Amino acid sequence: MRIKFVHKAALFAMSCLLVVGCSAGPGKEAEKEKSSLKVMFYSEDWFYQQYGDLFAMKHPEVEIEVINQQSIYNGENTDYVQAFKDLVEKEQPDILMLDTSNYATFASDGKLMELDSLIARDKYNTETIYPGLMDLLKEEGGGKLYGLSPSFSGSAIFYNADLFNKYGVELPHDGMTWQEIMDTARRFPTDGDEKTRVYGYGMDWSMSIDNMASSIANTEGLRAINPDTMKITINTDSWKKAYQLAIDALDSNAMYVPKDGGFSGGTMEEYYQSQPFVMGRVAMTIGRPYNLQNLKQVRESLKDYKPFELGMVAGPVNPAEPDTTRDVSYNQIFSIRANSPNADAAWEFLKFINGDEYAKIKSRSMNNELMSRMGYSKEYDGHSLDVFYKLKPSSSNSYSGMEKIPSEFYGQYQPIMDRELALVKDKKKTIDEALATIQDEGQVVLDKAVKDAEAKKDKPADSQDNADVGTSTDSGSTETIIITK
């Protein structure tokens, strides 16, 4: 506690120097009333680095206690959803850090404080927050706003303009679909050595039929499993189309597919050499803000590096919804717990980390996330970041509700998927036949996993899967006896 006090005192002194200086004169503003906050976050150090220190400079009167949510991953616990709920119930934090998987659940269960009235009361400006993000959070909150997210992660289509110009291929445009991307990739030459040739499209890692099709399916909002009905829904025309597009793309030889799975270790130079887009040999890729960092770092690190003209456009998109994207994630949604005794201080915290002042400071450091408050993450290394804000985040999330699927299911489902797709790759099965088998056999596995999970949930809290627990009280002492089955 003494260490925390010294930390707060130092920050308070710093804030005085940064603003107007502290004086004991008659004009000194009355000291604000002391208050406290319990915040749930990944870890205490990370919290202060990301949010706490800046907030403390602005509000030194608020004492913060960080509840480390990493504790739910300790031990043999596998039901992380329930473990998270149990931790909230036990610690009663004022501020919860949620993600897209549990925000809607906590809101619908009445566990969160509605923010619309607070925004209206304080005339808090939300007009310059990333368009669509507020609407999305409201939709997931059943029509009301229960949380704010200060940052988000998005992607765009990165392209090498020099290669497009060299081979006379029309430059990419905003709103390209996966079909358009693959058709464009095929317009580049496919001859030459693997380590020196040009590719129309590629990522830094090995692309299989499965993960390529999954990327396409995610863009188009397809779901392999319906978590509400617990039914596998992969044997459909839409999924067949996604898989066929992936198969055709891989068969075209226009895609970069590293045979060894990609970089697995070595020097920085070897790392950069393993990224053909960075090295100017891939025409298009799906990029994120950190890819801009890579391009800057390689230019500064490799003596003989030849930079190229980088272009970025919004996409890929679902042709049925060309103005939206599903590749936007915001995994730090901050909400106030319903009935929090420190709601006022909690709201001050939410206003600060989602406000202009915080965005202005944090936008100076580049990472894989962009500020939700627009007008601050403008450019990096001479490249405009507007492309990441062009598409509206879609309310249809392919991964929504997937936390309901028992974790044990995936270990048995994936081998079925791998086996069937290997048969497709070897031309021993059609994609129609493979998807029919995957759905049928996968449903059997899912039904069993759901049944086992329900049976486990119905067991008494002190029972164990592989042990009966008895108690002996001989000689006045209590001894736990574990009988292994």
UniProtKB/TrEMBL annotation:
<dbReference type="InterPro" id="IPR050490">
    <property type="entry name" value="Bact_solute-bd_prot1"/>
</dbReference>
<keyword id="KW-0813">Transport</keyword>
<feature type="compositionally biased region" description="Basic and acidic residues">
    <location>
        <begin position="451"/>
        <end position="462"/>
    </location>
</feature>
<keyword id="KW-0732">Signal</keyword>
<feature type="compositionally biased region" description="Polar residues">
    <location>
        <begin position="463"/>
        <end position="485"/>
    </location>
</feature>
<feature type="region of interest" description="Disordered">
    <location>
        <begin position="451"/>
        <end position="485"/>
    </location>
</feature>
<protein>
    <recommendedName>
        <fullName>Multiple sugar transport system substrate-binding protein</fullName>
    </recommendedName>
</protein>
<feature type="signal peptide">
    <location>
        <begin position="1"/>
        <end position="24"/>
    </location>
</feature>
<comment type="similarity">
    <text>Belongs to the bacterial solute-binding protein 1 family.</text>
</comment>
<dbReference type="Pfam" id="PF01547">
    <property type="entry name" value="SBP_bac_1"/>
</dbReference>
<dbReference type="InterPro" id="IPR006059">
    <property type="entry name" value="SBP"/>
</dbReference>
